[in-house]
């Protein structure tokens, strides 16, 4: 079982990080990708990946944090990419829902990190919140490969992404009542192009919605997708693990 997107470096895990990780392993967790939000978080993710052999790190700057970075950050990401446990650039993207950083700033750093990923031939982990058309355009223009995490776009957009080789990843939001569009994508996407994730500590799936999310809860995402596609949960777990290993070259 592969939780392809968690923020284990988050302060919400400071008190019990070790037991959260152990509990994930006991629940069947075999791989985990830690997604970063800024340079310090990238370093913390790599430190975790050094400590646990099944944990890998993505490095990069989240759109929320782009108002705090400089060109130096880009060199740091490039240097961190050389670490053997670093397997992706992310999470990077655009967030026009919260708009914590100005849109021009978000856009500028999104493109800089996409160009870097292309140059390094690194897969990217994309954060797209209420910026579907621009995110699609950006990955097409830069010619990168990777995954749209916590997918929230339409099936039509998913088809465009699938055409250019992208993977689509689902969080607990696929279990929410208002998830009609996401359920449609989870039903129709090819089995060899989907992934599951928690985005811990955020987005706890039903029936745990509202609690601090943990990697072991990725099972609820697998169960929901299995139900949508009318296959076994084990099949979804097996396929999504294979897909994650393929994209991140594990
Ligand atoms: Ni995230």
Q: Give the total of domains.
A: 1
Q: Tell me which oligomeric state these chains represent.
A: single chain
What's the shape? globular
- Global mean pLDDT: 97
What is the ordering of alpha helices and beta strands?
EHEHEHEHEHEHEHEHH
Helical residues, percent:
40-55%
Q: What characterizes the major β-sheet?
A: 8 strands, parallel
Radius of gyration: 16 Å
Q: Based on the structure given, which CATH architecture is correct?
A: Alpha-Beta Barrel
Q: What is the number of E strands?
A: 8
**Strand arrangement, major sheet:** 1-2-3-4-5-6-7-8
CATH topology: TIM Barrel
**If helices are DSSP runs of H or I spanning 4 or more residues, what is the number of helices?**
9
Fourth CATH level, the homologous superfamily:
Metal-dependent hydrolases
Helix and strand topology:
Blueprint: E1 2-6, H1 17-26, E2 31-34, H2 39-51, E3 55-59, H3 71-81, E4 86-95, H4 103-120, E5 124-129, H5 132-142, E6 146-149, H6 155-163, E7 167-170, H7 180-188, E8 194-196, H8 218-229, H9 233-247
Parallel strand pairs: 1-2, 2-3, 3-4, 4-5, 5-6, 6-7, 7-8
Bound molecules: nickel (II) ion (NI).
The site of nickel (II) ion (NI) has 5 residues, from loops.
What does this structure look like?
The relative contact order is 0.15. The protein has one domain: TIM Barrel (Alpha-Beta Barrel). It is an alpha/beta fold and 250 residues long. It is built from nine helices and eight strands. Helix 8 (218-229) crosses helix 9. The structure holds nickel (II) ion. Nickel (II) ion (NI) is lined by residues 5, 7, 35, 91, 199. Nickel (II) ion (NI) binds next to loops.
